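Q: My collaborator sent me two sequences in one message, no labels, and asked for predicted structures for both. Can we handle them in order? The first one she listed is below.
A: Yes, handling them in the order given. First sequence, followed by its structure tokens:
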Amino acid sequence: MANKRSLLASKAIALICCIVMIVSIACVPKAPKERPASLTILPTSAKAGSVIILSGTQFAPGEEVEIIMTVGNVHHSLGTEKADTVIANDKGAFEVTSGIPVKTPPGTYKVTASGNKGSIGAFTIKVIQ
């Protein structure tokens, strides 16, 4: 009789563990679905340290956008002086000024704007001497 109770208790514990695992997996927030957006940079070529204008469209209204310039293995956050995140307006657009990192060597670099609701836009900029 004790073995039967022990077996039933083990099965009950296993069932509870399975239910807890299923519920915890179902409650994990899903990553937002990626959606194309547009990013442009003016001027399209400039010297390191120069001011550039970053413009985005087709983002979700109110979406927080992080703008990253990749130089080799280093990711530089672009945007405003006091915030690394830009907020798209009610039409899903933004425009901010930033600067090309001062020590960026000449070359062509990818700049990516990633929104917290899944919007992604990319553009390349040429850094000249």
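Q: And the one she listed second?
A: Here it is, processed independently of the first:
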Amino acid sequence: MDLKDFKTYLYIFGMLAVALTIFPFVAVDYWWIRIFDFPHIQLTILTFVALVVFFMRFEVKRINDYLFTVIISACLVVQLIKIYPYTPFAEKDIYTSEEINPKAPISIYTANVLQSNKKRELLIADIKEKKPDVILLVETDTNWRDYVVEHLNDNYKYKVEAPQANTYGMLMYSKYKLINPQVKFLVDKGIPSIHTKMLLPSKDTIQLYSIHPTPPMPQHNPLSTDRDSEMMKIANLSRTSTFPVLVMGDFNDVAWSNTTSLFQNVGELLDIRKGRGVYNTYNANSLIFRWPLDHIFCSKEFRLISLKLGEDINSDHLPTYAKFSFEPEKAAEQQPKKPSERQLKNAKEQAERVQL
């Protein structure tokens, strides 16, 4: 391949990088647009490699080379700006707890188990090793419910079960008392969400929301409208809650997307990933194409003790384990940014697009 052909391929890649960088900012719900929110890290790496390679073939006398370098560099900067908050170099959203013996700890284990998964013993082994206070399992049917109930120890006295045969079932088990637990269907009669209050050992009451909206994929839902609407409904509930909030689940959306960012801002929530790492949970079967789809957000009253991914449970998702300390007296030190009127209006419009 001669130099001219090589540069032609780089120019083509540059145009593709520009398009893929712009796509996430396009305010439409079609799956073939929204899907480009996901592989942002991979695109950033490829753009950087293309820029380095192009510099090795840079011709000082060619104006096109200068123009290409400026464009591809601008793309790289935009991509890095979106990724940077999820690196250990960025400021943390939620601070690390300094308590040696927290008065009100709460540990959470969330997992998309893959409904067709037959190696269910791997999940139970991981749960028994981590000993979480709260367990959230999604993509669970009645077979999964029966297996979990049979093999889970008796410490989990409280539960909310919404098994479904459509891969959107949801199970929650807790060592702590659940108050007025409810299964709600916010956007679809086949897509449950769990809403419950919880009583901590300190006798403080907190609010939990668990969701698993449909992804913007042709085999699930050709639009992201339902997913976005459910997320904004939960964001509005979180912001107006009179209790401290934890939101968890498989969001089928990446941490850095405009939708998840709006969800966090409107909900006045903190992202446990920011300042710590990406913690990719999907696809567990690929080393290259992975991104963070499973999330835990919290309000300002919590501090983080630890965060890690679970073991391989033979699912296409990796579990997430997070341990918190409830420290409301320090909430003022990590205030989330207040949403703007424009953000509130945008969230309200998205929430109202789907009504049952």
